Amino acid sequence: MAKHISFGTPVNDAERWAFSLLAEELPDDYLLLTNVEIPTQSGQAMEVDALVVGEWGVYVVDVKGYMGRLNAGLHAWLLDGRDVDNSLAKANYVARVLAGKLKHKIPVGVYAPWCQGMVFVTGRKGEEIELEKDEGTLSIYTPKQIIAALTKEWGLTAPHKHPVTEKQKEIVLNTIGQVALVEQRNNKIQDFIKLKCLFLQQGLEVWQAEYQPGGWTAPWLLKILLPIQFDHSEEAAVHEQRLRDEFQRMQALSGCSGVPYCAPLIQDGEQLVLPIRMPRGLPMNMLSLTELTTYQLLEILRRSVSSLQQIHRRGYTVGGWAENCVFISEEGDVEFIDIKDSISTSTDIQQYASRFLALAEQTRQPRIYQWYRQAIAGGTNDLDALRSDLSAIIDIGVCDTLPQAIVIKEGAVIDHHYRLERLITESTHSQLWQALHLQGQYACGLSIYHQVDADWPMLSNLYRSLSKIYHPHIEKVLAFGQLPESEALFIARAWEQGDAIDTVSNIEIGQPRQWFTQLLSALQYLHRLDIFHGAICPKNIICHADKAVLVNFGVGLDIAASYYAAQYADPTLWSFEGQAERDLFGLVASFIDALTPASLKGDMGQKDMINALHSFDKQWFGEELFDACHRVLSFEFPLDPKRSYAEQFGIVC
Question: Contacts from 511-515 at CB under 8 Å and sequence distance 24+?
């Protein structure tokens, strides 16, 4: 693409089209000066359509929009049989005048560059033109040959061919005069100075620019529409409307984080310009993730989702998710420069998740990157939940996660906060440890579960909900995450004094009823929040004196026991039960299992469970409670979620 400096306005469509073709097709080191005037000795000036300073010479190009059959001779020209002006004679005359002026300016030891005239016959934008030359050496060319003639040696009429030097080019420009001033004028649109062309397509340009109203400068982008360069006015009108729509969108989104400021449209009769403040930072394709800390990555994600939420709340979508259209600053600001509003909100969130997944994974925070994976698959579009999680993790404080896997043993530190002190129990796929919170110096419980990556979305949502609620008979979750370089997850919880209900050594009269009532209230509270335990079994009920607590939501001490209560039940009936009914079944079955002597248990299937219930004294048990438990074990309990669970079990508090 040649450097194009326009000294004046093209007088017709043929000139506009010809100048556009020459600028786009000529090499980068060529100079194209259009509508320039060559000064003469008498002080008058001769206008030249185009002056091309090329590799082999300086070409004075006269542009003609002739259409039809042109027969060009040395002296006379015919167009479809009619006499027309011999433009080559005029171009050659101007070339001789220019060559004379150059010889007077050439210093000793420097040769003047070769100057020659040339005619460019355009036809109708390259079509509907036939050319016949009486002599093949005449410098008259159609669009098919003009570029080759200006760039190859054979297009030169000089007897000796020498490349044009940089010094010769400089002398040509000095002879024309004020080239730098004209170039500066051409690159100025009001107070904006064009610096670098970033995009060029027929009629559409994007420029990096500076705003220079006074003694300071600011970087901007200029989106420029040149309607005259389109082949059809209808096409130009479509692009103009798109540019105006973009301006209206950016004005409507003014004040939203993530949306750069735009100035009013500029229209000067020849072009329509949309100035947009240059986004801060770098486009995502130039961002080095490895140089960012976990906190920086989390802050970038938080600001990105906040920006997207603000845009959606004003009724727009981004749509333009190309990596070079999303900018990120050193401070973590995120800006979108291609807001199209062309897709639905759900699709916008999916594309956002796809673009930012790599950043999310770099945080090594499963609670975060699992959301992005889910969103890409269409499993969630809850931006509020993501923003809340990001804020919580940033506020709580995390350390950059070490990339190597952690060996689970006494003394190991999990998540930089929890040191494993004592292994309490373990199974094939899980472990329960007593741990020490290093900063707070208090005891806590820490469970580790292996091979749960497939269940992560369910568990993540469950524990995110648990971390935001409080009930005295529900475990207090302190932290939840995935171990580095592993599919294992950990759950840190407040340390609960006591033992699993099936290992309590001494149960006093009245304690089981008290514990059962407490856990019923806990389940009712959870169920009203649409939270379900899903794995109630004796090992997940911790009892101590006058208090019982539900632990291990969603997972048991062994992953195979995730739905441990189901082994008590008829599989067919179990599959039809609701989640609330399953929790109640697990609670009743766990108490029956824990309180029944081993000699009366059998294999603890559904029939054995009911038989075990009947081994208890109905009067001691309480008739209403006994009947309610029997109906639960038989899957005949008509649960009413609006009534107190304790009341439905016949328990008077």
Answer: 511/543, 511/545, 511/546, 512/591, 512/595, 513/622, 513/625, 513/651, 514/546, 514/548, 515/541, 515/543, 515/547, 515/548, 515/591
What is the chain's Cα-based Rg?
41
Burial class of residue 620 (count of CB atoms within 10 Å of its CB; 0-12, 13-18, 19+) = exposed
Domain boundaries defined on the chain: 3-184, 190-277, 286-392, 412-494, 499-649
pLDDT digits (tens, 9 = 90+) for 328-346: 998 889 999 889 999 999 9
Q: How far apart are CA 301 and CA 587, in angstroms?
A: 41
C-alpha to C-alpha distance for 440 and 438, rounded to whole angstroms = 6
Task: Judge whether residue 297 has pLDDT over 60.
Answer: yes
* Residue closest to 400 by CA, chosen among 290, 487, 278: 290
What does the CA dihedral 352, 358, 362, 364 come to, rounded to 10 degrees?
70
Structure confidence by residue, pLDDT tens digits, 396-429? 666 555 567 788 999 999 888 899 999 987 877 7
- Looking only at the bridges linking them, the beta strands covering 489-494 and 442-449 are antiparallel
- Domain 499-649 CATH assignment equals 1.10.510.10: yes
CATH topology of domain 190-277: Phosphorylase Kinase; domain 1 (3.30.200)
CA 610, CA 25: separation in Å to the nearest integer?
90
The fold adopted by the segment(s) 412-494 is Phosphorylase Kinase; domain 1 (3.30.200)
Model confidence over 358-383: pLDDT tens digits? 999 988 787 788 899 989 999 889 99
Assess whether the region 190-277 and the region 412-494 belong to the same CATH fold.
yes
Q: Is-contact 72 134, C-beta < 8 A?
A: yes
- CA triplet 287, 219, 22: central angle to 5 degrees? 95
Token pair belonging to 281: 């930072």
527 three-state secondary structure: helix
As its CATH architecture, domain 3-184 has 3-Layer(aba) Sandwich (3.40)
Predicted pLDDT at 317: 95
> What's the CA gap between 463 and 531, in Å, rounded?
10
